[in-house]
Amino acid sequence: MSIVPLNIGSAPNDGNGQDLRSGGQVINANFAELDQRTTAAQSAADAAQAAADAAIPGTQKGQPNGVAGLDGNGTVPASQLPSYVDDVLEFDSFATLPATGETGKIYITKDTNSQYRWSGTQYVLLTASPGSTDAVPEGAVNKYWTLARTLGSVLTGLVTTNPAVVAATDTVLAAFGKLQRQITDLASSKASKGENSDITSLVSLSTPLSVSQGGTGSASGVPEMVGASASNAGTKGLVPAPSVADRLKVLSGAGTWVPLPTGSAWGAITGTLSAQTDLQAALDTKALKTDQRLPSAFVTFSGGTGTPSIRGAFNVSSVVRNSQGDYTINFTSPMSSVSNYTFLASVAQSLYDPGVSILNMTASSLRISVVRWQDYQNVVMYDAPTICVTILGG
C-alpha cells in the first residue's frame, strides 16, 4: 500500500480536518507500511551485500592469484593458461609459426604434418619413429646381434681346465670350457693303444672280463648260462658243452647234463595218455585233420522249442536253435577254413519231404535251415524230431 496523508483541514480549527482517532489510525497504518518497507529494503540490501561480497573484483581479473579473463570468443587467452594445456599448437604452414617460439611446446604445420620444437634460437624438425630397427641404420660401435655373427664369434677367453658339471648360471663360454675338459678327460682314459684300441673287438685276452668289470664273463663275448638253484633263478646264456659221456644226456635247469629218465613213467608225466586231457585233445585234433576222408565232426540232435537235445556228437560243442527250423552248430575245434569242408544232413521222415539248406558257413560254426512242404506249392521252416549232420573235410 502507499502512505496516506492526514487531513488537517485548510485552516486551523476550521472543522474540516480529521479527528484525533481517525488521524491516529492513519498514522498507525503509515508506520506499519514503513516497517514493512524497511524490512524489505533491509533484505534487499543484505542480498546485494552478499552478492557484492561474492563478486570478484575487477582488479583480480587476469592477474596473479586472481582469475582468468575471457577474450572476445569467450575463451581464456593462451597467455593465461599453464604451458601443458597447449603443449601442441597447430599452424597452417612453417611460415605462420611465431617468430619466437616457446620451449616445451610442439608446433605442427598442417600443410606438411611436420612437427617442430623451439630450441631457443630456431625451430628444429622432429623425426618420427621408424617403426622397427630394420629401418634404423647400424652404428659403427653398437652392432646388431645376428645369427651369422653369433656362429662366427671367436671363443676369446675360453678356459678348459675346469671339468665341473655345467650349471644354469654359467656363461656360454664357461660351459664350452667345462664340456671340452670333460671330453678331453674321457678321451685320455679310454683304451687307445695296442690291439684293443677299438673296444668293439677284444682279442688276445687270456682271461675274460667279468660282468662286474664291464665284460660278459665269456671269451666269446656272449655270457654263459647260469643254472637255477633251490633259491635263485638261473640266467640265460651259452650252455655248457657236453662231453662224450654226456652225449645221451639232457641239460637240466640246474645247468648240468643229466641222464634221461627211465621206467614206466613217460618223462615226468605219470598215468595213461587219456589222463592228459590237453595232450589228448591236441592229438585228437591232429588225427581229426590228418585224413580228410574221415568225418571232421558229426552231431545228431532233436529239434523243437528250447535248447536242442544232442544225442550224439563228435567235435561239436553245442547246437543253438535260432528260430523255428533255424540251427547253428558250433565246432569244438574249428575247421581249417570255410572253403575246405562240406556236410551231409538228414532229418526224420515226414509226410511232406523235409530238406536241409545252408544259411551260413564259418570255420567255427555251420548254420542250417530245415524246411518241409506246407502244401504242394509252399514250404515252411520245420523243427524236425531228429536231425543228423556230418562234416567232411575241414
CATH fold assignment of the domain at 291-393:
Immunoglobulin-like
Beta fraction: 15-25%
- Largest sheet, if any? 5 strands, antiparallel
CATH architecture name of the domain at 291-393: Sandwich
The percent range for helix content is: 10-25%
Mean pLDDT equals: 82
**Which regions have little confidence, pLDDT < 50, spanning 5+ residues?**
none
Characterization of the model:
Strands 9, 10, 12, 13 and 14 form a five-stranded antiparallel sheet that branches. The protein has a four-stranded mixed sheet with strand order 1-2-3-4, with no helix packed on it. A hairpin with a 5-residue loop joins strand 13 (365-373) and strand 14 (379-381). The model has no long low-confidence stretch (mean pLDDT 82). The protein has 394 residues and is an alpha+beta fold. Among the domains are: 1-42, no CATH class; 83-126; 291-393, Sandwich (Immunoglobulin-like), CATH 2.60.40. It contains four helices and 15 strands.
In short:
The protein has 394 residues and is of the alpha+beta class. The mean pLDDT is 82.
Task: Give the key terms.
394 residues, alpha+beta, Immunoglobulin-like, four-stranded mixed sheet, 4 helices
List the helices and strands and how they pair.
Elements: H1 20-54, E1 88-91, E2 106-109, E3 114-118, E4 123-126, H2 147-151, H3 172-189, E5 249-251, E6 257-259, H4 277-290, E7 295-302, E8 309-314, E9 316-323, E10 326-331, E11 341-347, E12 355-361, E13 365-373, E14 379-381, E15 387-393
Parallel strand pairs: 1-2
Antiparallel strand pairs: 2-3, 3-4, 5-6, 7-8, 7-15, 9-10, 10-13, 11-15, 12-13, 13-14
